[in-house]
Amino acid sequence: MAKAKQQGMTLLEVMVALVIFSTAALALMNSVSLNVRFTYGLADTLQASWVAENQLAEAQLMQSDFPDTEEEGTETQGGRSWTWRKQRVKSADQGLVDEIRVWAEGDDSQPVITLDIIPPGEKK
Question: Which residue intervals make up region (Disordered) (predicted)?
Answer without folding.
Answer: 65-84
